[in-house]
Specification:
This protein is mainly α. About 80% of the residues lie in helices and about 0% in strands. Helix 7 runs antiparallel to helix 8.
């Protein structure tokens, strides 16, 4: 009995030592993560996972490892780590969203769509999942599905700017130009300091042949942000369409000065001569 008791005591001590060692490695890995020592954090997370492969905390460790890998730009490895975490906890919405964002980064839209659907099944009001699923649906030209997601978001918050922009883009793609214009007008009235909205309306008006209206919006956008190179390119394109070649050339040269490669604008510059 004494020998058996000693065996149990020794075994318990070994198990406690193992647990402490695992916990110590995890704590050190987290410490390195907070200090942005990502390579060391990665090594320690991997070490802890090998030390105790069946530990219930490993789902969190795989998730943390995925985040560390993502921050290092190791996207494929990060996806693999998140997938291993989801193999343990398949209903972890935060991990599903993290993996979906990486699928989006790699343009793996079908895989991202599946993850966003899983999140919405669990959390029907999740804004990020709804927005990105709507974006993917729009890319697939499933406009009805995209509109459903945007409408769900707007039913929760009529001031959801991203969802309202999504509806504007849907209206434009479906040829409902007046509805798109009305939507943009409302957004601009509510966000008068947002130059990107003026650019968007300028692009809409230019596409409809309303050059003067487009010019007014671009001039307004440049008053808000005169360092917007793309805005100068658009300005040049409109001036060129209006046969105002000198003004077009000035706009293109300003865009180049702000970082647009000259080679990209060679054809437009030739047309200005």
């Amino acid at each position: 009995m004494k020998r058996f008791f000693l065996f149990i005591v020794c075994l318990s001590a070994i198990m406690i030592g193992k647990a402490q060692s695992y916990n110590e490695v995890v704590e050190k890995a987290m410490d390195y993560t907070f200090k942005d020592s990502l390579s060391q954090a990665e090594q320690l997370f991997r070490k802890a996972l090998k030390m105790d492969p069946s530990n219930a905390r490993n789902a969190l460790l795989f998730s943390n490892l995925g985040t560390v890998l993502k921050r290092q730009g190791k996207i494929d490895e990060a996806i693999e780590a998140y997938t291993l975490a989801l193999n343990i906890t398949p209903y972890a919405t935060a991990i599903l969203l993290n993996r979906a964002s990486l699928y989006m980064e790699k343009n793996l839209l079908d895989k991202a769509y599946v993850d966003y659907c899983a999140v919405i099944d669990l959390l029907p009001k999740n804004k990020d999942a709804r927005l990105f699923r709507a974006y993917i649906s729009m890319k697939r030209r499933n406009f009805d599905e995209a509109r459903i997601d945007y409408n769900v978001l707007l039913s929760e918050d009529m001031n959801n700017k991203a969802a309202r922009l999504g509806v504007v883009m849907l209206d434009e793609k479906e040829g409902n130009i007046q509805a798109a214009r009305d939507g943009l007008n409302l957004l601009i009235n509510n966000n008068p300091e947002d130059a990107s909205l003026l650019k968007m309306r300028a692009n809409l008006e230019f596409g409809q042949g309303n050059k003067e209206a487009a010019l007014l919006d671009l001039e307004g956008a440049l008053k808000l942000d005169d360092k917007d190179a793309e805005c100068h390119v658009m300005l040049g394109d409109i001036y060129l369409e209006m046969d105002k070649k000198e003004k077009a050339k000035i706009a293109y040269e300003q865009a180049i000065a702000l970082g647009i490669p000259r080679g990209r604008l060679l054809e437009q510059l030739k047309a200005c001569n």
